[in-house]
């Protein structure tokens, strides 16, 4: 990777924590304070490994099988597993690419985008990121409450939401301490639980993963591979959802190699394990009992499933903490603890009001926004940077990079316009206008990533102006 020197008016991020910080081994409170480099490869591996094992991976198994609007599962379990593995490995590599700039510069993810788009233009992806992270944080509290109700055989949903929201908020106050806590205690318990459920599911006896019908009382599994890349994009979108916040954590990494290896390797490995387990659970579900049912009916299932429910809070914690850092790109001197408490309260209220109905459409929209943005970032940061990337408050606007991002976004929508009716109808009309018909082999994620990267390189070659250094 080419060397990139950041001139941001504060390259002290590799130095000691600023005086006045409550803990020299904890995350700074504002953007004015440098980031301590205290997270080892194993700290980060534990963090990303736990994020890979999500209750969303179990409940999202249905999404990976590419259901039709009528509920028919077009892919077989075997095809779904292959699509999930391919999508997760590709998503893991993209996540690793997003992790490196944070480790190299010590800057949070949205602040890094000042170098890509300019200080003011970085507000556009920042606002989008705030919106999507609030959505993810809300969905996490919803899925925790639903899983807890199944685990405890009912109970008031609002109580589980409040408990999950409170735990999430507490974790965000000490983010680096929470990461180290995951390594020491939670990761071991999660790994043991995964092994236990695999053993129990194999003992139960899995059905033929390539044939109809599906679980008793549910929709049959299909044998059609024509929607393979749509399923792959659905799996990849889960990994991509972490891309716009990766640098928020890897800025504390002791090295770039540790940041890339942990983000790409540990996350992909555990997400594959969790998704396969979720697909097995879907195959074993009976009488429409839902994907969580098989976890609770095996020997000691409730005990080990409780581990999954409890550690799901690290997902909502990561979303809330990164939302706070994203807001700091707009308001750099606001204490992240104040922001975290307010955001924790907000997602708790939203979780009490909303449901999981639009999960698949939500994933598609996230992928269409951030996959091409990563393509632009990777091309400009790794392939085209000429020694200077200004991430200061005076970073000049780079409209060309916005244009490259929009090109990639349009490619994604033309191939996969999603499931939101009015949005999908608009892009379907555009397809007709352009006489364009998406083919089964087309991956919206891969083609939009590559198109955006190529557009960024081309626009960069046409724009010969040197980056403007920050004001001293």
Automatic annotation (TrEMBL):
Subcellular location: Membrane
Pfam family, one: Transp_cyt_pur
Keyword NAD belongs to the record: no
Chain spans, region Disordered: 1-29
Keyword RNA-binding applies: no
Top-level taxon: Bacteria
Keywords: Membrane, Transmembrane, Transmembrane helix
Membrane topology: Multi-pass membrane protein
TM ranges: 47-65, 77-100, 121-144, 156-174, 181-199, 227-247, 259-286, 292-310, 338-356, 362-383, 395-415, 441-462
Family statement: Belongs to the purine-cytosine permease (2.A.39) family.
Cross-referenced PANTHER family: CYTOSINE PERMEASE, CYTOSINE TRANSPORTER CODB
Record-given protein name: Hydroxymethylpyrimidine transporter CytX
Lineage of producing organism: Bacteria, Bacillati, Actinomycetota, Actinomycetes, Streptosporangiales
Gene name tied to this protein: cytX
């Amino acid at each position: 990777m080419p060397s990139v020197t950041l001139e941001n008016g504060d390259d002290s991020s590799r130095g000691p924590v600023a005086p006045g910080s409550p803990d020299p081994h904890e995350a700074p409170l504002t953007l004015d304070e440098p980031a301590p480099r205290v997270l080892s490869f194993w700290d980060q591996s534990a963090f990303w490994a736990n994020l890979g094992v999500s209750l969303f991976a179990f409940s999202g198994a249905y999404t990976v099988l590419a259901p039709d609007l009528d509920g028919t599962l077009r892919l077989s379990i075997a095809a779904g597993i292959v699509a999930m593995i391919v999508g997760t490995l590709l998503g893991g590599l993209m996540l690793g690419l997003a992790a490196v700039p944070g480790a190299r510069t010590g800057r949070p993810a949205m602040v890094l985008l000042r170098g890509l788009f300019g200080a003011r233009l970085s507000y556009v992806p920042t606002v989008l990121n705030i919106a999507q992270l609030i959505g993810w944080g809300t969905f996490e509290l919803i899925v925790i409450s639903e899983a807890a109700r199944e685990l405890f055989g009912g109970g008031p949903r609002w109580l589980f939401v409040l408990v999950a929201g409170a735990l999430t908020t507490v974790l965000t106050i000490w983010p680096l301490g929470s990461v180290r806590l995951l390594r020491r205690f939670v990761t071991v318990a999660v790994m043991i639980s995964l092994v236990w459920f695999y053993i129990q599911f194999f003992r139960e006896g899995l059905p033929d993963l390539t044939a109809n019908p599906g679980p008793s009382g549910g929709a049959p599994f299909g044998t059609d591979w024509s929607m393979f890349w749509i399923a792959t994009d659905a799996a990849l979108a889960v990994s991509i959802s972490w891309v716009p916040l990766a640098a928020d954590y890897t800025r504390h990494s002791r090295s770039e190699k540790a940041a890339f290896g942990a983000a790409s390797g540990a996350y992909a490995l555990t997400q594959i394990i969790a998704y396969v387990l979720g697909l097995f659970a879907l195959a074993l579900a009976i009488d429409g009992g839902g994907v969580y049912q098989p976890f609770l009916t095996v020997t000691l299932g409730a005990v080990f499933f409780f581990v999954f429910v409890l550690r799901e809070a690290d997902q909502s914690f990561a979303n809330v903490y990164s939302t706070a850092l994203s807001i700091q790109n707009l308001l750099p001197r606001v204490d992240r603890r104040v922001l975290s408490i307010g955001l924790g309260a907000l997602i708790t209220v939203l979780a009490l009001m909303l449901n999981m109905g639009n999960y698949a459409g939500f994933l598609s929209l996230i992928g269409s926004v951030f996959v091409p943005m990563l393509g632009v970032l990777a091309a400009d940061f790794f392939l085209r940077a000429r020694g200077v990337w200004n991430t200061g408050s005076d970073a000049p606007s780079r409209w060309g990079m916005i244009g490259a991002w929009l090109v990639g976004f349009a490619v994604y929508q033309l191939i996969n316009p999603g499931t939101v009716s009015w949005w999908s109808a608009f892009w379907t009309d555009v397809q007709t206008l352009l006489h364009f018909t998406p083919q089964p082999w087309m991956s919206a994620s891969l083609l939009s990533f590559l198109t955006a990267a190529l557009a960024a390189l081309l626009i960069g070659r046409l724009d010969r102006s040197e980056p403007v250094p920050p004001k001293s």
